[in-house]
Amino acid sequence: MPRRILGVLVDRPSVVTIAMFAAVVAHALMSIRYPSLNFWSSALPDGVPADGEPARSVYLALSGAAATSAGFAGVVIVFGLTTSSQSFRKFRTAGGAELRASWLSVIASSFAATIASLAAAVTAMSIVGPWLFELGVLLWLHGISRMLFLLRGLMGLVKRDDADASRADRVVSSADLFSRRRAG
After folding, report:
1. CA dist 81 to 69, 70, 88, Å?
2. pTM
3. Max Cα-Cα span within the chain
4. pLDDT confidence of 182, banded at 50, 70, 90?
5. Upper half-sphere CA count for residue 145 (Cβ side, 13 Å)
6. Burial level of 2, CB count in 10 A (0-12/13-18/19+)?
7. Domain residues of the chain, as ranges?
8. Which of 101, 100, 113 minimizes the C-alpha distance to 142?
9. Distant-in-sequence, close-in-space partners of 114: CB < 8 Å, separation ≥ 6
10. 3-class SS at 58?
11. In angstroms, rounded to a whole number, what is the distance separating the alpha carbons of residues 146 and 76?
């Protein structure tokens, strides 16, 4: 059963995103009933900053980090899509819909984190701001962890391609072998 759950988490990024959104909503709702669960209230007086500037600065910092992650994710994905070696073609074909969902997810999660953190900055002086920030942090972490997972796989393909190329470079044709003997 745990292997099946792990498979869903790896192959279905939308399930992870929905679960994160549900977790933040559940956390917010449970914090109403059980105030001790609201860690924002200890960080912010009354759960809402009296002056929104410190919180706004933190929220905007996340938006910058998330936007940078989206850009890097784009570079990683373009690399994976444009490399034309046989191992990359097999990888893309075998990955199918799940791989395409992961590629889209790394960028979509980062952009969604950027939007959530910008919305948190706009609503910094309301009770909603911290919860949007929490959602943004989770989306950002999801995007970068999935991106690193994909990057690791792509690096493995590059290693395999390099090994194949090195092996091909060491192969000497019989014509070259005999022509070297005659010349020597």
Report:
1. 18, 16, 8
2. 0.81
3. 90
4. low
5. 11
6. exposed
7. 2-170
8. 113
9. 63, 66, 67, 70, 136
10. helix
11. 11
Region label for 38, one of left (φ > 0), alpha (ψ between -120 and 50) or beta (otherwise): beta
What is the token pair recorded at 27?
Answer: 């956390």
d(CA 33, CA 27): 10
Q: Which one, of 82, 77, 152, lies nearest residue 109 by Cα?
A: 77
Q: d(Cα 72, Cα 51) in Å, to the nearest integer? A: 34
**Identity of the amino acid at 13:** P
* Percentages (nearest 5) of helix, strand, coil residues in the chain: 90, 0, 10
Q: What is the dihedral of CA 116, 76, 105, 159, to 10 degrees?
A: -140
Average pLDDT, the chain: 85
Residue with tokens 């972490």: 141
70 neighbors 110 (Cβ within 8 angstroms): yes
Bigger pLDDT: 3 vs 75: 75
Sequence letter at residue 4:
R
What does the block give as tokens for 161?
A: 């391609």
What is the spatial distance between Cα 8 and Cα 29, in angstroms, rounded to a whole number?
Answer: 27
Q: For residue 64, what are its two tokens?
A: 């910058």
Cα-Cα end-to-end distance for the chain:
66
- Under 8 Å CB-to-CB from 129, ≥6 apart: which residues? 48, 49, 52, 55, 59, 120, 121, 123
